[in-house]
Amino acid sequence: MNKVREVEVVVVGAGQAGLSSAYHLRRAGLEPDRDFVVLDHSPAPGGAWQFRWPSLTYGKVHGMHALPGMELTGADPARASSEVIGEYFARYERTFALRVRRPVDVRAVREGPGGRLLVESSDGTWATRALISATGTWDRPFWPRYRGQETFRGRQLHTAQYPGPEAFAGQRVVVVGGGASGTQHLLEIAPYAAATTWVTRRPPVFREGPFDEEAGRAAVALVEERVRQGLPPRSVVSVTGLPLNDAIRRGLADGVLDRQPMFDRITPDGVEWEDGRKVVADVILWATGFRPAVDHLTPLRLREPGGGIRVEGTRAVADPRVHLVGYGPSASTVGANRAGRAAVRDIGRLLAREEPAVA
User: Fold this and answer.
1) What pLDDT does 359 receive?
2) What is the pLDDT of residue 358?
3) What is the pLDDT of residue 59?
4) Calpha distance 36→12 (Å, rounded)
C-alpha cells in the first residue's frame, strides 16, 4: 500500500467521462494496469446513475448518449435508469477490459518528483505523467443557506437523497429549484403529497420546439466561455431552458408547476416571504444542483480568483498535465464522449514531448 507505482495516466472516476477517456486511451495503444489505471470510488459500475432514485426510469432520462464503441440497445424504458445504465457500464468495462479499480477514494493530487503528479488514494499512491479528472458533480450537492434554516422542525433533503415520491405521501412539500430535477420531483410528488409549493430564484424558462445541433453548440459555447475565464461552470441545462414536453404542459395546466419567487426565510413550520406570506411545510426538498467534485486537486492550486478552474478544451491552463473531462461544457453525456477523445489526443502529444531521457 505504501509503494508508489508509476503509470503514464491516471483516470479518476468511471462515469461516462472516465469510461470514455479509458476507451480512447486503449485505442491509443495504452494498456490498463500497465500504462494507465482507472480509479473509481463508487461501489459498482454505473457512475452517478447507480445512485438515482428508483422512479427515474430509463424512459424519463433526457439525452443519455451511448459510450464510444458500444451502443445501448433494447433497454426497457420502464426499468429504473440506475439498473439499465449500471448494467450497460458494467458490460462496457468488461468488453473493453478497462479493469476499473473500485472502490478507491482519491484523496489528493500533488506535485511529485521528476515532473510527475502523485495521486494519493485508498489504493496507495500513483506517480503519473498525466491525470484525467472525471469526477463529475454527484458527490458535491449544493445546499443554499437561508435565514432560519436550522430552526425548521420538518425534514430537509437534497436531490442526491431523493427516495422517490411515495416517501412524501400526505406531506406538505416545498420544492426549491428551477431545473430538470425540481420539475421532475414536483410532477412525481404532487399525486402523493397533501400540498406542493415550487419556489425558484429566477423564473423558469421553458423551451419550445426541437433542440437542434446549432442550439446545442450555442449552449455549450456559453458554458465553455465561463470555464475559459476561470469562473465556476454552469450546467448546459441552465442556459438551454427546460423542454416543454407533455408532462410539463400538464403540470403547468393543473397548477403543480405554479412557480413562486424565492422565500426570504425559513421558520420552524415552513417558509416565509417579506410581504408576510407563509407556507406551512413538512419537507423542504432542495433541487438546487451540484458543484464540480474537484477537491482532490486542491494541492495543485488550480483555482482562479473567480472560483473555477480555467480550462482550454479539457486541459487545465495552470497545469497542462491535468485534464478535466465532464467539467463545464463537457458535463453532458455526448460532451463527455468528445472530451474524453480530445483529452487523450492532447495527452498523447504531452507524453511524446516528455519522453524521459536515456541514462
Assistant:
1) 30
2) 34
3) 85
4) 11
* R_g (Cα) of the chain, nearest Å: 22
Of the candidates 197, 191, 149, 143, the residue with the CA atom closest to the CA atom of residue 172: 197
- For 244, other C-beta atoms within 10 Å of its C-beta total 14
Amino acid at 282: D
Q: Helices (H), strands (E): how many in the chain?
A: 7, 18
Return the beta strands (E) in 217-310 as ranges.
242-243, 259-261, 265-267, 270-272, 278-280, 283-286
The three cell numbers locating residue 20? 470514455
- Residue tagged 478497462 (cell numbers): 98
- Return the pLDDT at 128: 98
Q: Is-above-0.85 flag for pTM? A: yes
User: Are 36 and 9 spatial neighbours (Cβ–Cβ below 8 Å)?
Assistant: yes
Q: First CA to last CA across the chain, in angstroms?
A: 29
The pLDDT averaged over each successive group of 10 residues in the chain (359 residues) is 88 96 97 97 95 87 81 90 95 97 97 96 97 95 96 97 96 94 94 98 79 58 70 66 84 95 98 97 96 95 90 93 86 76 94 57
Using CA atoms, how far residue 243 sits from 24, 63, 237, 258, in Å, is 32, 12, 10, 16
Calculate the dihedral angle through the C-alpha atoms of 123, 124, 130, 131, rounding to the nearest 10 degrees: 40
Nearest CA-CA partner of 100 in 4, 49, 28, 26: 26
- Residue 190: φ, ψ to 5°: -50, -45
φ/ψ bin of 63: left (φ > 0), alpha (ψ from -120 to 50), beta (otherwise): left
SS3 288: coil
Distance CA 61, CA 80 (A): 10
d(CA 292, CA 234): 10
Backbone phi and psi for residue 21, each to the nearest 5 degrees, phi listed first: -65, -45
